[in-house]
Design goal:
CATH architecture of the largest domain: 2-Layer Sandwich
Largest sheet: 7 strands, antiparallel
């Protein structure tokens, strides 16, 4: 149920984001979702793609430094308090969220969130034990059409 995510450091300068996106497009790789965080000097681009190994190879072949981490995707009720409910479960279990971001699509009355936990296996167990739907990679890619 863990999903591979690619992360890249890049200079925070105009045009730096388009190069990896263009290279993935030329290789026929669709970006399912992404997150971009920045500081004044650099940014961190995080990507989820179906064929992450090919994407990693394309990007490293272009001189990018790419790391692969595992993230967890969950459904959350798309209503006020939906996220707070999940966060309470995580907090009670003593799990640490390193970062999170939302997907750009909904599934009925649910939204999808991506979490990076300090202990993904423990987080998956806690979420499932509390009735929170953890989404595997194949299901996630299918839902996104990617």
């Amino acid at each position: 149920m863990k999903i591979p995510q690619l992360s890249m450091f890049m200079e925070n300068k105009p045009g730096r984001l388009s190069d990896p996106c263009r290279r993935l497009a030329e290789a026929g790789i669709n970006i399912v979702t992404l997150s971009l965080a920045d500081t004044q000097q650099f940014g961190i681009l995080r990507l989820i793609v179906r064929d992450w190994e090919k994407a990693r190879d394309v990007l490293t072949g272009a001189g990018c430094v790419v790391t692969v981490t595992e993230v967890v995707a969950t459904e959350v009720e798309d209503r006020p308090g939906g996220l707070a409910t999940i966060l309470e479960v995580i907090e009670k279990a003593g799990l640490n969220i390193e970062y999170m971001y939302a997907f750009t699509f909904r599934s009925g009355d649910k939204a999808v969130l991506v979490f990076r936990f300090n202990d993904a296996d423990a987080a998956i167990q806690v979420l499932q034990d509390n009735g929170i739907n953890v989404i595997g990679g194949v299901e996630l890619y299918d839902r996104a059409g990617g």
